Amino acid sequence: MSGEPKRSTGSKIVRFAMVGLVNTAIDLAGFFLLLKLHVPPLPANIISWSIAVIFSFVANGFWSFERNQTIPLHQAFLRFVSLGVLISLGVSTLSIALFAGIAGVWPAKIGGVAAAAALNFIAARWSIEGRLLK
Cβ of 113: how many Cβ atoms within 10 Å? Predict the structure, then answer.
C-alpha cells in the first residue's frame, strides 16, 4: 500500500474492537447453539469460530483496516485465517482443553477469547494491510 494510512491507529483499534464484539457474539452464539445440539465442546468451538472468522475478515477488511490492494484478497484471507487459527482458535481451544474441567466450559471459552484479543489486532493488521506499525 503506498502512502500513509488514511485512518489513525486509534480509529482502527476502535473499529477492530467493535467488529470484535460482534464477532465474539457470533462465536459465542454459535458455540451455545452447537452445545445445545449436543456437539462436544472442542468441535463446537472449531465450528463456531470458523463461522465468526469469515464475518471478522469481511468486516475488518472492508471497514476496520485499509486493505492493501497489492495483497490478493485470497492471500489476505489465508493470512487472516492462518493467524486466527494460531491465535484465537488455538488459544480458545487450549483454554477449553485445559480449564473446562476446572472452571467449566463457558469460563474457559470466554477466557480464551479474551486472551487472544490484543494479538488478533496485530495479526489482522498485518494480514489485511501488510503492516505491523504506523
Answer: 23
| 133 CA to centre of own chain | 19
Q: Domain boundaries in the chain?
A: 9-129
| pTM (2 d.p.) | 0.77
Which letter, b or e, does each residue of 63-87 get, where b requires 16 or more Cβ atoms within 10 Å of its Cβ? ebbbbbeebeeeebbebbbebbeeb
Question: Residues 129, 65: contact at Cβ < 8 Å?
Answer: yes
pLDDT tens digits, 7-63: 788 898 899 899 999 999 999 999 999 999 999 999 999 999 999 999 999 998 889
| Number of neighbours of residue 111 by Cβ within 10 angstroms | 17
Scanning 37-104, the segments in alpha helix (DSSP H) are 41-59, 73-84, 90-103
